[in-house]
Amino acid sequence: MTRRRLLQTAGTTAAIGAMRGAEIDPAWVQAMESVQAAVATASEDPERPIFHFHPPANWNNDPNGTLFYKGWHHLFYQLNPFGTNIGNQHWGHARSRDLVNWEHLPIAVWPSSALGERAIFSGGAIVANDGRPRLIYTSIGHAEPEQCMALPQDADLIAWKKFAGNPVLTTAAHGPLKVNQWRDPFLFRDSGQVYMVCGGNARTGRGGSGQVQLYRAAKEDLSEWRYLGCVFQPLERETYNIECPNLLPLEGKWVLIISPHRPCEYFVGTLDLEKARFTPETHGILDAGDAYASNISRDGQGRTILWLWGRTNTPPGHGWNGVMVLPRILSLGPDGFLRQQVPAEFQSLRASSQTFSARLLGNQVIVLEGVHGDAIELQAEFTAPNSSAFGFEVRRSASGMAAAVVTFQRGMLSVGNARTYIGDSNRVEVHLFVDKRCLEVYVNDGAVALYTALNAAPEDRGIAVFARELQFARSSDAPAANVTLEALQVWEMHPATFSLEHFHL
Ligand code: FRU
Question: 143 pLDDT exceeds 80?
Fold first, then answer.
């Protein structure tokens, strides 16, 4: 591909400059053009989320290489440029100043047929001791997965080049131990050293055999690694494999997050890097809904940010499928469990607001008058005895069918098939984000967070609050539920910006 042909195709010189002499791979051009060709269809879909991060078009899954660098939040992600189903994994790329509004950037890493690559699977990013970021990803297409590195070609991290000495780590590092499904490097730093964890399983028949392996960089440029051992193997029999492990320090503890082919789980505990051993103290479900494959970044304010893929189950023909869950600030609660909170930056999207007065809710469903509930933020507080159920009907049709019912009942939250424990306090604080095909529920200051996909017709925009008494439900003279709605405020949300200005060849 000549420079001239590229300029004709793309009509811009922006990223050509950024490619800075790097050879232009026709496979990259083809992938970029394929995404561009799907943009019109994707952006015309009235059910595409407006404030959840999404690629310009087509399929995405895991967040990758999340990194805050020189004032920008960089987000790489698993992208299928060629369609709306999983496959052909590339690394898409975008950046944001505020976690809300994004600039799409050119595809950063793609499979090189010359290297025998079929796919670029998930991985992480870290700033090496020379001050330059590195991406480390799983290269697929060889006899065994390999961990490989890419380096930025410019100060803005737009163009990336694979390290000439790839792979930087192979399964040979494990000696006699056979690690299956070995992938998803995640990088962290401790006492001046750089560490990596990878997922996989040992099929040992002990526990579930899902394992997290730990490595330490043997060279400052991260081109060589030493295997330290299996840092964690959960006891659950059903954890037969672990994807996307994240190991991070948080407020004096260490947190391990795993994606075990079911909702992500986390452990808070201690880490002995010498013995290569993570010891859990508490264990929780990170998100019981449709979120998966976490990644972590640490921003300029010292906030630890959790990134998750949000499935949307978009039917074919819409030009897109998948989002990122809203980024979440992680902290530790006094009970030793995680708290997950949506960054205050999202308040910048709040448009008109409505406040509903406090009231006692009987056995009834109250539709919130005048709320167009397909792109809203909602905050509410309830006091309720244990004998009642209450919550919200979301994306309700004119005939009263709801796409999702958010129910609080006997210490549990349920949304569709997802159920999670919230604790038995009589006071429940609820924070909802509805964004077209996406719903997020945050409870009691982020002690519980749940993302789920929605399926509604564009005109189904009603939202209702309800309560009902459980104990006497079968009796004809059932008493009114004794649930008090203490406060309720709803904001309609402006769309976030997803600029395509830099998404060019
Ligand atoms: C998790 C995952 C990872 C893998 C990637 C491939 O969703 O299966 O283990 O690297 O997706 O897209």
Answer: yes
Ligand 1 contacts CB of residue 62 (under 6 A): yes
> What does each C-alpha distance from 36 to 81, 92, 231, 428, 501 come to in angstroms?
9, 13, 42, 45, 12
**Which of 99, 147, 121, 331 minimizes the C-alpha distance to 244?**
121
**Mean pLDDT rounded to a whole number for the chain:** 93
Q: Is 292 in the pocket of ligand 1 (CB under 6 A)?
A: yes
Check pocket membership of 80 for ligand 1, CB cut-off 6 A. no
Kindly give the number of the ligand 1 atom that is closest to the alpha carbon of 199: 9
| Pick from 321, 286, 289: nearest CA to 307 | 286
**Residues contacting 221, CB < 8 A, separation 6+:** 128, 130
pLDDT of residue 472: 57
Q: Torsions phi, psi of 11, nearest 5? A: 65, 20
**Ligand 1 mean position, distance from CA 62 (Å):** 7
Q: What is the CA radius of gyration of the chain?
A: 24
92, two tokens: 């898409």
Match 């995640």 to its residue by tokens: 186
Is residue 157 over pLDDT 60?
Answer: yes
Q: Which two tokens stand for residue 452?
A: 């789920």
Any ligand 1 atom below 6 A from CB of 223: no
CA 334 to centroid of chain Cα atoms = 25
With a pLDDT cut of 90, the percent of the chain lying above it is 89
Which residues share a beta bridge with 309? 292, 324
Ligand 1 pocket, residue 91 CB under 6 Å: no
pTM of the model: 0.95
Nearest residue to 260 (alpha-carbon basis) of 207, 299, 305: 207
Give Cα 325 to chain centroid, integer Å. Answer: 5
| Burial class of residue 259, CB neighbours in 10 A (0-12, 13-18, 19+) | buried
* 167 upstream amide cis, omega within 30 of 0: yes
